[in-house]
TrEMBL record, chain A:
This is Sugar ABC transporter substrate-binding protein. Keywords: Signal, Transport. It is found in: Cell envelope. It comes from Micromonospora deserti. Belongs to the bacterial solute-binding protein 1 family. The lineage of its organism: Bacteria, Bacillati, Actinomycetota, Actinomycetes, Micromonosporales. PROSITE patterns: TAT. It comes from the Bacteria.
TrEMBL record, chain B:
It is found in: Cell membrane. The lineage of its organism: Bacteria, Bacillati, Actinomycetota, Actinomycetes, Micromonosporales. Belongs to the binding-protein-dependent transport system permease family. The keyword Transmembrane applies. This is Polysaccharide ABC transporter ATP-binding protein. Pfam families: BPD_transp_1. The chain crosses the membrane at residues 43-62, 114-135, 156-177, 197-222, 243-261, 303-324. Residues 1-21 have a biased composition (Low complexity). GO terms for molecular function: ATP binding. GO terms for cellular component: plasma membrane.
Length: 555, 340
């Protein structure tokens, strides 16, 4: 083995050198500081005034009078489906350009792709240009999006949910580098060329501005609340359980409803809704004496945390929710394994319509909002658009024009043939008509449709009665009208915030710690410690940043 | 040494054959001439290697250049194309490394990762060897084929499936828990106990990959000269002595090779498995280096920080491989490569 010795000594020297380097880097932080700088953005906030100058001129394009007119951010409701449909668009939007690749999120089984999907074929025939959608799982959308932005490889039309934008630290740089500046196409009266885009609410357009230029087409929210606490009203009624109206009753309900031997637990995820019932703000609120207070500093947060931790400790939360991030709560809720969970209000109609076919008594309802100890609840929400649709940069004026005409088609209002085709597909294939003329999706419709055109096209939101969910429109709009007064005012409405990197970095570690407390791995009293660490390592920087953004806008 | 078993010996001469002619001193007197000679003689070999070398160059060595972003406040959106983004991003020296090494979360992740590696080295690494020896000793080919297929299968499942499977079986609403409740017992807390998480992830890894890991050992076993067994049996060696003196020495080069490779990977213990079960047991138990990089670098678009963590991983891996290889040489094994 003598020959190996020279090699061995080289190894040792290399090893020592590498070890030395590692140690120097570890302990020599102070020394290194001389020749190194800190990475990461400090954040920016765009002024609200600069935004107003580039918005399209609003011009409503309503084809039908609503039965339940919406107010502010609440959409219009229609209780009957029109017998007569109008043609909203006379000129074919596509000029036979190359296929349009799109990417948008979808929460559900992936529909068949272009070439094997009759719904796509039917709409593309109308458009006069091939739209080739790529649907990605909405839950893990950020993974795909981050890689795509990092590689600068974006499709012709890219749909980005607003909550993903907030997670991407350098999104405004990405917007400028990758997407077309739409200001000249849509600013002021130029938008009249695309009448249904001009009909989108100005409040939604305000959020589509980056660096003082218009970069996206918004998908306005059809209801500004972030979440609702859904419960299985049918199962509560049949078990003789009354609807809880206070935290004590909610807890009592949990104890009565949970029956592990039958595989039934009262709750899935509920923490965000509990915070709202307890009157805790989503992020910041103004202190009476000026300045901002983070929700961790609000005693209501502590109370909500204590309450929810108790639900976990007493085993009232389904073990799948406890055990895995991938727990399919919608499935558990549909099959009655959990009786209450929080979800976006957008989940309501689809789930109700799908499930009622197998179980006619199925009835999911949002739990009526209640306050705690006489204080009103605070509902989280904003008029932020749900999605933004971006156009790839450098496609040329002609092509951008074609893409915007396609988006305009996708935004056609209720009462038009285009709306029906986009929303329900082809009669006889994707939907049949109930006695009152309203469309009822077929199995094929459910399978082939994944909002491929809806999620990219904006559209003015409306709520329409459908055959399989007859009570939905009244229930939905009733819930909003009753509770809209409780909605928290968005302090930063119209101000585009690019959050500092230090702030983005503390979010996950802090969430981890809060979750440790919720799940009983740390005592509730540890919140003090968590708060201290949060504010020391980026929280205060975040507070100063937000306070400055408000001050700069005179709010 | 006796450690040069059949399996190792069969590959060693092949490698050695190519060397002596190339390094023969008389030919080396005029290097330029010898290079042409060697090219003329070896071109078919070079041609066969070229595609693999090209792949390596394009997909491994070229992207390696991207590691420069570890020393930048890298912003993928400056400039007009990805190359300009590299050129125009600000150079910040060791700023990323400094931020990394100062972060207690980073050291938590490193400690967790190393603990899991060490644990799995003891409780996972030997299992495929045992399985291979067990399978090898089965006489019936049909039974062996069946068992092999069954234990290979989970390797092709994604981690989402594996974790879901464990939740459905061992979770609080799973099969075991429901059976225990029916029997009037208090179900065990298997999926959400941070203290036993390391055992759980190892069990999952064993279930998923034990069959796959056994393949290479089965191949090595097949290469052991059967005459040795017959000769030993004739000399009166029983089953255990044959295992100890023939089978295990025969496997030793492969075992050492895989052990060294595993050490080089000491800071990678998987990603999905941990991100999926993070909420169940909390960050303190489930944060490994890869999830740390995901949450603190990728999701906050601090690509430079991520690259710095990657370089750190590579440096540690290199040190461990060199050290382990050196130890292997000392013990008379070939290791990953040999210089002699």
């Amino acid at each position: 083995m003598t020959p190996s010795l020279p090699g061995a000594s080289t190894d040792r020297r290399t090893l020592l050198r590498l070890l030395g380097l590692g140690t120097a880097a570890t302990i020599g932080g102070a020394t290194l500081a001389g020749c190194s700088k800190e990475a990461g953005s400090k954040g920016t906030a765009t002024q609200a005034d600069a935004i107003r100058a580039v918005l399209p001129t609003y011009k409503p394009a309503e084809l039908l009078k609503p039965d339940i007119p919406g107010e502010g951010p609440i959409p219009d409701g229609y209780l009957s489906y029109p017998r007569q449909l109008a043609d909203a668009i006379t000129e074919q939007p596509g000029r036979g350009g190359p296929p349009i690749n799109t990417m948008s999120p979808w929460w559900g089984p992936a529909p068949p792709t272009l070439g094997r999907n009759s719904y796509l074929a039917a709409v593309n025939a109308k458009l006069g240009v091939e739209v080739n959608p790529s649907l990605q799982d909405g839950v893990t959308y950020a993974d795909k999006l981050n890689a795509m932005l990092g590689a600068r490889d974006v499709p012709d039309l890219l749909c980005v949910p607003n909550w993903e934008v907030d997670k991407v630290a350098r999104f405004s740089d990405a917007v400028k580098a990758l997407f077309e500046d739409l200001t000249d196409h849509l600013k002021g009266d130029a938008a009249a060329k695309y009448p249904y885009l001009a009909a989108l609410p100005t409040g939604a357009w305000e959020y589509s501005v980056w660096g003082g230029r218009l970069y996206a087409v918004p998908f306005p929210t059809d209801g500004p609340f972030a979440l609702a606490l859904f419960h299985r009203k049918d199962l509560l009624d049949s078990a003789g359980l009354s609807t809880p109206t206070s935290p004590e009753e909610l807890h009592e309900f949990g104890r009565k409803a949970t029956d592990p031997a039958k595989g039934v637990w009262a709750f899935g995820s509920v923490f965000d809704m509990v915070q709202q019932f307890f009157g805790c703000q989503q992020h910041w609120r103004k202190k009476p004496d000026g300045g901002l207070e983070h929700k961790f500093e609000n005693p209501a947060f502590l109370a909500a945390l204590e309450f929810t931790a108790k639900l976990f400790a007493e085993g009232l939360v389904h073990p799948d929710t406890v055990a895995s991030k991938g727990a399919d709560e919608k499935q558990l809720f549909k099959s009655g394994k959990i009786l209450m969970f929080q979800d976006g209000l957008g989940a309501w109609q689809g789930m109700q319509g799908e499930r009622v076919k197998e179980l006619p008594s199925f009835n999911m309802q949002p739990l009526p909002i209640f306050g705690v100890n006489g204080a009103p609840a605070v509902i989280w929400g904003s008029e932020k658009p749900v999605f933004y649709t971006f156009v790839k940069k450098g496609l040329g004026v002609e092509r951008v024009d074609e893409l915007l005409r396609v988006l305009n088609w996708c935004a056609a209002p209720f009462g038009s043939r285009e709306f029906e085709l986009r929303e329900y597909g082809v009669e006889g294939q994707h939907f049949t008509r109930a006695a009152d003329g309203s469309p009822v999706p077929t199995e094929l419709g459910r399978k082939e449709m994944g909002a491929q055109y809806t999620h990219i096209g904006g559209r003015v939101p409306v709520k329409v009665k459908s055959g399989d969910t007859p009570d939905y429109v009244a229930d939905y709009l009733g819930y909003y009208q009753k509770n809209i007064g409780l909605m928290e005012k968005d302090l930063f409405a119209g101000i585009k915030l690019e959050l500092p990197a230090n702030w983005s970095k503390i979010i996950q570690p802090t969430e981890d710690k809060i979750r440790d407390i919720l799940r009983g791995r740390r005592p509730v009293s540890d919140l003090e410690q968590v708060k201290k660490e949060f504010f020391a390592s980026g929280g205060e920087e975040g507070r100063a940043f937000h306070e400055k953004a408000l001050a700069d806008n005179g709010r | 040494m006796s450690g040069r078993g059949a399996a190792g010996a069969s590959s060693a001469p092949a490698a050695a054959d190519q060397r002596p002619p190339a390094g023969r001193p008389p030919v080396d007197r005029r290097p330029r001439h010898s290079l042409r000679d060697r090219l003329r003689r070896d071109w078919p070999l070079l041609a066969m290697t070229a595609p693999a070398a090209a792949l390596l160059l394009v997909f491994h060595y070229l992207p390696t250049l991207g590691n420069v972003i570890a020393f930048q406040d890298y912003n993928p959106f400056v400039g007009d194309d990805p190359i300009e983004a590299f050129l125009y991003s600000e150079w910040i020296g060791f700023g990323n490394f400094e931020a990394l090494f100062r972060d207690p979360l980073f050291w938590d992740a490193v400690r967790n990762t190393l603990t899991i590696t060490a644990f799995q080295l003891v409780f996972f690494f030997p299992l495929p060897i045992m399985l291979a020896i067990l399978l090898n000793s089965l006489v019936s080919g049909r039974v062996r084929g069946f068992v092999q297929s069954v234990v290979y299968l989970p390797h092709f499942f994604s981690w989402v499936l594996v974790v879901t499977f464990f939740v459905q079986m061992l979770g609080g609403a799973g099969l075991l828990a429901q059976e225990m409740r029916q029997a009037g017992l208090q179900p065990w807390d298997i999926m959400t106990n941070p203290d036993t998480f390391i055992v759980l992830v190892t069990a999952e890894a064993v279930w998923k990959d034990i069959g796959w890991g056994a393949i290479v050992f089965l191949a090595a076993l097949a290469a052991i000269d059967q005459n040795l067994y017959e000769a030993a049996a004739a000399d009166g060696a029983n089953r255990w002595r044959r295992l100890w003196h023939i089978t295990l020495p025969g496997l030793r080069p492969v075992i050492v090779l895989l052990l060294i490779m595993r050490l080089g990977d000491a800071l990678s213990v998987g990603f999905e498995q941990f991100i999926l079960q993070r909420e169940a047991v909390g960050r303190e138990a489930a944060e490994v280096l890869d999830t740390f990089v995901y949450y603190q670098a990728i999701s906050t678009q601090q690509w430079g920080l991520g690259a710095a963590a990657g370089l750190f991983k590579a440096a540690v891996g290199l040190v461990l491989i060199l050290a382990a290889n050196h130890v292997a040489h000392r013990l008379g094994e070939q290791g990953v490569y040999s210089k002699s």
